[in-house]
Write a structure and sequence with these properties.
Keywords: Membrane, Transmembrane, Transmembrane helix. By secondary structure, this protein is mainly alpha-helical. The chain is built from seven helices and two strands. The radius of gyration is 38 Å and the shape is elongated.
Amino acid sequence: MARQEKLHKHAPWSKKVLITLWVLQLGLSLFEFSWCLTLLILVANAGSDAGGSQFERAAWGINMILGSILSIYIIHIIKKFASFRLTTKEFQIQSIAAILIGLLGLALFCGAQDFFDSIIIGAEVAVSIGICIYVVVIRRRVRKGVLAEMKRPTTGDVELEGSREEVPRVERRVSKDLTLFGSAPATRGASLSSARTDVELGGPPREARELV
């Protein structure tokens, strides 16, 4: 037995690996954006009594912009992945850009001596490097012909589990029913047909001639 089933395969990518890395990367970038935005709002409301140097405030503003750009780019890549149109080349470019954005933000926070934000950006850069390494490995295997680029899955026949056991049982039961109920009528019908043929060709059957 077989049925039509749509196979949702995201080859050459591993769905579990990418979702885990994307959750970390997107979560950190959104946290960076919201945290820097919150600090800038607090500084603006505090006025002249606000803490932080001018360089630190500039670092917050730049990293807020960088975090928003990175978040939008990550969401764009996720949408490409969901629609089966994510190529290894595009993903590699995005992963390298994510590393560069993270390193720029890390340099700004280190220059401003903002250690908490530096730790957040450092974790984001580490995740981006992990994604880039994974993408480079997959792209190299695609270029060697071991894997193929991502494409939309097609609909095919998929054999159901347990069908190999159920089909023989049905066949055996049907054959047994035919043996019990269908073989005897078929034999009697064949005997009558043979008797009619003998009568048409040469007279009565053998049993009738012996009686006569």
